Amino acid sequence: xxxxxxxxxxxxxxxxxxxxxxxxxxxxxxxxxxxxxxxxxxxxxxxxxxxxxxxxxxxxxxxxxxxxxxxxxxxxxxxxxxxxxxxxxxxxxxxxxxxxxxxxxxxxxxxxxxxxxxxxxxxxxxxxxxxxxxxxxxxxxxxxxxxxxxxxxxxxxxxxxxxxxxxxxxxxxxxxxxxxxxxxxxxxxxxxxxxxxxxxxxxxxxxxxxxxxxxxxxxxxxxxxxxxxxxxxxxxxxxxxxxxxxxxxxxxxxxxxxxxxxxxxxxxxxxxxxxxxxxxxxxxxxxxxxxxxxxxxx
Length: 298
What we know:
The chain is an alpha/beta fold. The protein folds into two domains: 2-133, Response regulator (Rossmann fold); 144-297, Alpha-Beta Plaits. It is 49% helix and 21% strand. It has eleven helices and twelve strands. Strand 9 and strand 10 (245-246) form a beta hairpin. Helix 2 packs parallel to helix 3. The N and C termini lie far apart (54 Å). Residues 293-297 have low confidence and may be disordered.
């Protein structure tokens, strides 16, 4: 596991590292709690924070609270506080501040590693729960809720004109696939599309045969080109039907961020462009224009 350890004493940091590194853990040591928090924010692979209560400039309890807010529900993070003064009040304050565990300083090797093994079990469970809560069970890509959560986060970081774009895709004549070949074949088609979109930006299944992709750092022209590559890739797919191999197509709507925008508006414009692609004959990519009828006519 990736573990961040925070203590004002470099000697204590060296002792703790010597206790847990032989067990295969990667230790990142800090004497400055603010720097430790910055590292946690920038390194989502960290799974455990071990901090003394007596650190600066953020005290250990403030660091616990800030780390807990940072992790929220999307990131497993086990927080262990240390103090040379073990008493009921210190324990209660640590737990109320977001800590998961409390140990005396300096800890023994047996106790510390036992607590880390317990942390690993809990983290594994948390990761599985997050996976189940965020992924579409059929395809393994983000479900609708997780897609919108990730899209909003991306917008907070890069929401500016030309800084983020969106693609909505819908399988053409999907009901016909189900009616003629069965729902199992329809599921195969959905999974095939999901595999193609999974590696392109923030991709998710929004429901049924509809998919969304948010592309940070991507202009409208770049997003349109990506959608066209996806359209060609899907058109070239062949899947096993009830009687023979079948092909299918998708329609795409594309939009990009504008002034005073938000994620809902960005995706709404992509949805209007997708409707234009469907109305204009399907199996095509339509970028959003102020007058969508122009897009339909093209």
